């Protein structure tokens, strides 16, 4: 009883209602930082500790390996360590290993080791272009189709309906998709989506297997449910059968995978599907300072397509902190150098490096920051845990460690044993200066640190025990971590939190990304910014630069999302030249030229009227402003006695 009471302490009344709801459908719809993940982990622990469900009967799923690892850690801390918390894929893989041999009477096929190469072969076979970009984008189309449960023959119609902008004509993409499936099946290999497709099919088509499965797993929990795709939903339905012991939590405003087929419709429609569900809304933000919360509200408040029921406003619960900061830089190198200086300052003021993150839109942006941090000798790790075990140096290291463990002639003293094996695959005592050598070193040192961790937590830990731990982590895609600043994409940062967050490279073409060419795609980019902003507990800095490293290339403009956010009078409120141009234009016009409500710049006349947008920031002009602009143009034309269709700026 005492333990149960402790589990309910530190929860607010709404969270407590979700935690203590009887077994059955429960839905928590809430904004970022309101304690959704905390609520589900407490709920699992509560049900387990009250004896309402056995730990091994619970299956908790989420979308990234990192988030699953985080959930396992939280569950262990709550005394529910035996509960399986995994990604959809890891859970499906585990189940397939058990059921596949029984159903198909053969060993489970291998996981596809080089998808890119196979898609390239398929492209070649159907006479499509095999350049890198085409192959990569064609692979993404295949993933979208499989996640959306679209068969090759249905691809052309579905792609047109969904407005997909794939690299090939739909008919050829469909041929390529067919060829890819044939090549893969012939090689008896499975891609990631196959894991889900096969387990769903096995559970649906083999009643005995379904029954056995349902005897084993009785209670399901899904975190980040807003990002479930049709394939994952089908798997979830296959797991459930006609039962309803399902707890889901999510935030429709954090839907960031709809480009890949995900949809918040199942989250939003949950209480329609399960009318008897306990539905809880949380609005108190426990993660961030009121300053960060206010900014988050502003970012998402500007969203244009928020479905009903998702317009929650967060209210900050923490003490006040510093105002979010904005900065404009001449180029990326200067931006990265400043970020690294500020990180050093935060660290000097006692913020642990592991509590600091630099978040960006695309992985390529990471390089400038890796270099700046290496130069400043600040340790860092690049997120993307899923890829850790696929890295060449990690695979080599694991092979060497396995061999050493099999002979285990190095004795039990563990970190030193691991170090000595890793020296053989290139570990140096000192970190190399930067670049790929530094990356390799970071991965290897992470393996050493895992050994150190194990040596302090497990009595008599030797190499075999260590290798077993490593294999288990590889299977669960749960990489060891190094103490250091986190560099991560916004997608990989979902669900996580840090004391200090740097959102970098916020320029048009990057956020929103240049291929976001529909309103819906731009809105998804806005939600990514919302996800980024809401990762910060206290310090938040948003920055951008007007040129690439070295100043080359086309000039850049700051992201359109920033215009309503940067406060008036802030040095970064407006690029100097643009402000100057605006002032000059206004003086030249001699009348009050209307200003854009978003960026404050003078509107440029005919072009803006034609586009219905401000030419300096891409804000749409409302009717009132358009009317005033037209009136201004007429007046100006009258003064100059020229026809009104002349463009003035
Ligand atoms: P996201 O949408 O980003 O995934 P979330 O809703 O899952 O966020 P959590 O990660 O569960 O939020 O919680 C955010 C932070 O607030 C965590 O540090 C958590 O420990 C803390 N927190 C949650 N609920 C409470 C509470 N009732 N009292 C104090 N702290 C809380
Ligand atoms: Mg969460």
UniProtKB/TrEMBL annotation:
Q: Name one Pfam family in it.
A: HRDC
| Region (Disordered), start-end ranges | 307-332
* Gene Ontology MF term list: 3'-5' DNA helicase activity; ATP binding; DNA binding; hydrolase activity
Q: Which SMART domains match?
A: HRDC (SM00341)
According to the entry, every stretch annotated as the UvrD-like helicase C-terminal domain falls at 290-538
Q: Name one GO cellular component term.
A: cytosol
Which reaction(s) does its UniProt entry say it catalyses?
Answer: ATP + H2O = ADP + phosphate + H(+); Couples ATP hydrolysis with the unwinding of duplex DNA by translocating in the 3'-5' direction
Q: Where does ATP bind?
A: 30-37
Enzyme class of the recorded protein, top EC level: isomerase
Q: Is this entry keyworded Oxidoreductase? A: no
Going by the entry's taxonomy, the superkingdom of the source organism is recorded as: Bacteria
- This enzyme's EC code(s): 5.6.2.4
> Know the name of this protein?
DNA 3'-5' helicase
| Organism of derivation | Saccharopolyspora montiporae
